[in-house]
Write a structure and sequence with these properties.
The complex is a heterodimer of chains A (about 250) and B (about 350). Chain A is of the alpha+beta class. Helix content of chain A is about 30%, strand content about 30%. In chain A, the strands form 2 sheets. A 5-stranded mixed sheet of chain A has the order 1-2-3-5-4. Chain A has a 4-stranded antiparallel sheet with strand order 7-6-8-9, with helices on both faces. In chain A, strand 8 and strand 9 form a beta hairpin. Chain A is globular, with a radius of gyration of 19 Å. The relative contact order of chain A is 0.15. Chain B is elongated. In chain B, helix 1 crosses helix 2. Chain B has 8 helices and 12 strands. In chain B, strands 1, 2, 3, 4, 5 and 6 form a 6-stranded mixed sheet that branches. Chain B is about 25% helix and about 30% strand. The chains are: A alpha+beta (about 250), B alpha+beta (about 350). Chains A and B meet through helix 1, strand 9 and helix 4 of A and helix 3, helix 4, strand 12 and helix 8 of B. Strand 9 of chain A pairs antiparallel with strand 12 of chain B, so a sheet runs across the interface.
């Protein structure tokens, strides 16, 4: 079963934070809140730039070592995107609460797991970016991310975008790639057993999803749509979400 | 040049403004033809030699001491018997049954890595604080890689109710088994216990590139591990271990981690714009000073033990300087590192 549902997002869902977003895609639902720039704690204070703090809270239980790792990955990526030098000595805090995650239909997995969950990383990146946009934090670029699994089935190699937990388990390798809106490779995490050639194919697939040329000529857009009708265009999704939010906010004018 | 020059000793310069210090070293203005050298005297693509020493701890089932320049890691592997009655939600396994091995290792937590960054190993580690984010991140990465590479097979960690190998090595137990069969008790061969491997790593001294050193120590320690032969004693209904007999743990492959950090010319430069402004250098095997100055890093784990280069993991984060070509090119660098480490592990 492949959950090929289109991503859904809502902005400004939390009334008290500076910015917030709710995002659901591929079975994952997350809520993020962004507060900033606020006063930094003494030990986090940096004389020349803002400190970016990311907190990931799992759906059940308290965060463990896995959440710390996800936080460090997100922190290093978001600090590259946010114009941290504009806010010296301050703090920008991103809190991500996982609300719902897809279950493995085949085995009863433990609730708390220490190993890295690749499938959730794109959702974390996307939610954080949407919340930052909603908070109006100045950024030099946005980012989009996607997860791709390489599955060997009956001797044939197949690429699965946004894999389900079962597909992650049976896949020979799982990859997460994030691209900035300038087509730079921001984050690349891969695990499993693969070759350079396979990684190249994955890169192509992920790039197609994350940074399809947005408003290109209409003719080429049509051709692309015919070729791959199922693949979602994450950058377009980010854009349309923001557009609809802005349109709703300016409705009174 | 008429500007007054202030002479500063190199350590002071490094302390006062580390970024220009490293930059000056890399861009040697005196002689542009000379290849760039780092503050530690190495070339950009030069790694520190890895020294690995196995079985340095007498009470562990397997251990190793790995030195990578001034980074020293001690790794000890200790096995403990976990009876299946103590496993929650245990699903019985039958011999010859396929079953995904990875599931057992993961679900019953049979591999438990833990990393401790000792106080005093580097100035930034303070005494009496909870595990730092770095220590937690490192142990997650080691845990994930241990499972994804499948280095340790679950077959080695199972303890069966009947000795393995059928009738080959059962001379002394032959009588006992015969009696059982005479009694007519049809006892199924079943898994009675598992070995849990506690893999503890201690950073004795810390000078950058912790993951490469930690992973090399884990691999060296696992290759050195031999567990006592355990068997099921039906009379006492418990697992007993042999005092003398030991069995070497089978470790599949030799994955080697290779890390590089990206040093950018512009301090806190404008990145994220696709093509980074200014030059950047890929510094292989970064030390502590370089790690504090670099934001972007790539770690690639490769295994060439089957003749073919297989990538086991790529972790790239913190910037956009490393694009597709650099990742592809990094595979050959990692391959070279694999050969060096393989030589050191023998």
């Amino acid at each position: 079963m492949t959950a090929t549902t289109a991503p859904k997002a809502a902005l400004g869902v939390l009334p008290r934070s500076d910015g917030s977003a709710k995002y659901s895609h591929a079975g994952y639902t997350l809520t993020a809140s962004v507060n900033g720039p606020i006063e930094a704690q003494r030990r986090d204070e940096h004389a020349y730039e803002a400190h970016v703090e990311v907190i990931v809270r799992p759906a059940a239980g308290v965060g463990g070592t896995r959440e710390r790792h996800l936080e460090s990955l997100l922190q290093s990526s978001l600090a590259q995107l946010i114009l941290v030098k504009n806010f010296p000595r301050s703090l920008i805090q991103v809190v991500l609460q996982i609300e719902d995650s897809p279950e493995n239909d085949y085995v009863n997995t433990k609730l708390v797991q220490a190993s890295l969950n690749f499938a959730i990383m794109p959702a974390l990146v996307q939610t954080a970016i949407l919340a930052l946009l909603s908070a109006g934090v100045p950024m030099r670029a946005t980012a989009t991310a996607t997860a791709v699994a390489v599955v060997h089935q009956d001797g044939a190699k197949k690429m699965v975008v946004d894999p389900s937990p079962r597909e992650v388990e049976t896949a020979s390798s799982v990859h997460v790639l994030a691209f900035t809106s300038h087509n730079g490779l921001l984050l690349a995490e891969s695990e499993g057993d693969f070759t350079v050639g396979e990684w190249d194919d994955v890169y192509e697939t992920a790039k197609e999803i994350c940074c399809r040329s947005t408003p290109a000529k209409e003719g080429t857009a049509m051709v692309l749509d015919d070729e791959e009708p199922s693949a979602t265009d994450m950058r377009q999704f980010l854009r349309s979400t923001m557009e609809s939010k802005v349109a709703a906010d300016l409705h009174w004018k | 040049m008429s500007a007054p020059t202030i002479k500063l000793p190199a350590p002071l310069f490094a302390r006062l403004s580390p970024h220009p210090f490293l930059l000056r070293n890399l861009t040697s203005a005196a002689d542009p033809s000379r290849p760039a050298t780092r503050t530690n005297g190495r070339g950009t693509q030069e790694t520190r030699p890895l020294h690995a020493k196995a079985s340095s701890l007498s009470h562990a089932h397997g251990s190793s001491l790995v030195r990578l320049g001034d980074t020293t890691v001690l790794c000890g592997v200790r096995g403990e018997v976990l009876p299946v009655e103590r496993v929650p939600l245990f699903r019985p396994v039958d011999r010859g049954g396929v079953g995904l091995g990875r599931g057992e290792l993961r679900d019953y937590d049979l591999l438990v890595p833990n990393i401790e960054l000792a106080t005093g190993s580097a100035p930034q580690f303070l005494p009496g604080v909870p595990p730092t984010a770095l220590a937690q991140t490192l142990s997650t990465r080691v845990y994930s890689l241990l499972h994804s590479t499948g280095m340790v097979g679950v077959e080695d960690l199972r303890v069966w109710s009947k000795p393995a190998g059928g009738g080959e090595d059962t001379e002394m137990e032959g009588a006992g088994e015969g009696q059982e069969e005479e009694e007519g008790v049809k006892e199924e061969d079943r898994v009675v216990a598992y070995w849990v491997l506690y893999i503890d790593l201690l950073f004795v001294s810390f000078d950058g590139n912790p993951f490469d050193a930690a992973w090399a120590a884990v691999v060296a320690a696992l290759r050195n591990t031999s567990l006592p032969v355990a068997r099921w004693d039906p009379e006492r209904e418990m697992v007993v271990c042999s005092r003398t007999e030991k069995r070497q743990l089978n470790v599949k492959g030799l994955p080697v981690a290779c890390t590089a950090a990206v040093f950018e010319e512009k301090e806190l430069g404008e990145v994220g714009t696709g093509v980074p402004e200014g030059r950047h250098w890929l510094l292989l095997d970064p030390d502590r000073l370089e790690e504090t100055l670099c934001r972007e890093a790539i770690t690639m784990v490769v295994d060439c033990s089957d003749g073919e280069t297989r990538i086991k993991s790529i972790e790239k984060q913190g910037g956009t300087a490393i694009g597709r070509e650099l990742v592809r090119g990094f595979a050959t660098i990692a391959e070279k590192r694999w050969k060096e480490v393989q030589g050191a592990m023998k």
